[in-house]
UniProtKB/TrEMBL annotation:
Coiled coil regions, renumbered to chain: none
Alphabetically ordered keywords of this record: Oxidoreductase
GO biological process: carbohydrate metabolic process
Protein species of origin: Gracilibacillus dipsosauri
Molecular-function GO term, any one: oxidoreductase activity, acting on the CH-OH group of donors, NAD or NADP as acceptor
Assigned protein family: Belongs to the short-chain dehydrogenases/reductases (SDR) family.
SUPFAM superfamilies xrefs: NAD(P)-binding Rossmann-fold domains (SSF51735)
Protein's UniProt name: Gluconate 5-dehydrogenase
């Protein structure tokens, strides 16, 4: 059974691999044999993730790029190719959030969040997918969505809109890339104690979340690893594309 999830010989590029959730997923991919390129806006935190993976017997290297500045993504793709010769797995985990109420939202803030969560991810995927097609060995693209993509959450209007758009992008690209044997799926995490949502978790909001989460707790970042390894593995999910895998403690199944 373990061979189904063996990623030995695979190269994974983790955009946002220095984030709370992105780093945990990257570590999970590395533990199953993948070679990791950890890409983040902050070089120092990317180095920390890479060092942790290497200390645990994996192989990883840190790179710096900002998906809202596509010239840096082009550059980092060239750097990663020089290091590994190509890649098989692309993890799209960068993200930006804001609690600005809708009527107070300025175009500048909307653009900044969309530049990271949507525009940046879309065009970074374009850059990395072209190489995957040239390699002619298939691959897996994993987008990190959100429970707010299907049921918009209060206080995170722009974030919710960006993640809903990414769900559509995920399914469109699944159809676009299927002839190249490149699968595109998304993980829909529930509430995890990540930097993105920590600042809006008042006691009242925590209680509201728990009332809508049947498992009555937050998720742990490590609990996303299995979903990502499954979607990354050709043997385990070779016929899975255009789908959304919920890891949300039952949030998506709850009404009242």
């Amino acid at each position: 059974m373990s061979r189904l999830f063996d990623l030995t010989g695979k190269v994974a590029v983790a955009l946002g691999g220095n984030s709370t959730l992105g780093s945990s997923i990257a570590e999970g991919l590395a533990e199953h044999g993948a070679k990791l390129a950890i890409v983040g806006r902050n070089r120092e935190t990317s180095e920390e993730v890479a060092q942790k993976i290497n200390a645990n017997g994996g192989e990883a290297k840190a790179f710096q790029a900002d998906v809202s500045d596509l010239a840096t993504v082009e550059n980092v793709a060239t750097e990663i190719e020089a290091w590994t010769g190509g890649w098989d797995i692309l993890l799209n985990a960068p993200g930006m959030n804001s609690t600005t109420p809708f009527l107070d939202l300025a175009t500048e803030e909307w653009d900044k969040i969309m530049d990271v969560n949507l525009r940046g991810v879309v065009f970074a995927t374009q850059i990395f997918a072209k190489k995957m097609m040239e390699q002619k060995r298939g691959g897996s693209i994993i987008n990190i969505s959100s429970v707010s993509s299907t049921t918009p959450l209060s206080k995170v209007f722009t974030y919710s809109a960006s993640k809903a758009a990414m769900n559509s992008v995920t399914q469109f690209l699944a159809r676009e890339f299927a002839p190249h044997d490149i699968r595109v799926n998304a993980i829909i995490p529930g509430f995890f104690p990540a930097e993105q949502n920590r600042k809006i978790l008042s006691e009242e909001r925590v209680q509201s979340i728990m009332n809508h989460t049947p498992m009555n707790r937050f998720g742990e970042p490590e609990e996303l690893q299995g979903a990502a390894v499954y979607l990354a593995s050709d043997k385990a999910s070779g016929f899975v594309t255009g789908t959304f895998l919920r890891v949300d403690g039952g949030f998506g199944s709850m009404t009242i």
